[in-house]
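Hey all, sorry for the wall of text incoming. These are the two entities for the joint prediction.
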Amino acid sequence: MQVARKLSWTLPDWMFEEFELGLPRATAEQRMALAIQLARRNIETGGGPFGAVIFEVGTGRVIGPGVNLVVSQGCSLLHAEMVAIAFAQATLGTFSLASGKYELVTSSEPCVQCLGALFWSGVERLTCGAPVADAERVGFDEGPRAPDWKEQLSARGISVEAPLLVSEARAVLDEYARRGGVVYNGRTTWTATPAT
Amino acid sequence: MQVARKLSWTLPDWMFEEFELGLPRATAEQRMALAIQLARRNIETGGGPFGAVIFEVGTGRVIGPGVNLVVSQGCSLLHAEMVAIAFAQATLGTFSLASGKYELVTSSEPCVQCLGALFWSGVERLTCGAPVADAERVGFDEGPRAPDWKEQLSARGISVEAPLLVSEARAVLDEYARRGGVVYNGRTTWTATPAT
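and here's what came out:
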């Protein structure tokens, strides 16, 4: 067996064909709506029920769009927020989004991995849709997070805004469970739990 | 500005040319020694002072080698542990290392991002070299980690072994600081702090 020396990740074509990514989103609600729409579209292709976007704060331009690509691209790193960050940095050609004014908008509160990634990325603002309890209700385990993570981000200069479009974001998680979507935790894989 | 649609990451050639990665490492010390050697070699090329390897537990075969590639490849995700996990999964063609028996051996205790990534990856065991205090002393901020992260990993079936080769691992961090290496936190960039 040969150890892999190179790997490549590709955003789905439908992202570019269906979502007018070149169009700025002026309001916070429009930005969250895009993240949720990406999440919803992703489950139609068999992907995980999460979407996230890095926007330029002042203009609302999309710098890095993301959806969960864990299963389709065979890598547990590829949560929506991770994809958004990696592609935003590829778009800008830098490892640090602190070089400008950027924000992460995500359809669900970040898990421990994505919380860590956004901390390192240089974004200055985080806005979430569904709270972590909704992802957990469906069956995801968001991991060993610090209970005071919002305060810890804030202490490092990253603001956490009030949740937006929570019921729309929650509806995507519920739809994923209704379809019997896979919960692709690295250690075990099972079917999502529909709301009772 | 066009949003990036594809990105690729490549392991450094020197990893394959200088480290006999096809050779199994039978003992825990040999495995940690490789992670530390990779970290040391990486700083000679201007990379961050961290190395990590995914091994097959039973055989000691290298499945995914990693070093910090944040600056050279322009992506804040590319901590050594993240690279090791992503390339191990690429080697095996699966998003879940729980399909076999794999361990992560890292030259320094994981930051919050890497802690999250290993939780999702499916590895069953973690062994660290230098404690987080050493990385922090040099100037790295390991982020909003849960204080009981070891217990939280253990509760999820991932064992955290006793630290190994701590002084060898620490020496790489000190060497990085001595050279005036960059601390590439996404939000700010500054020069590492040499030991006093």
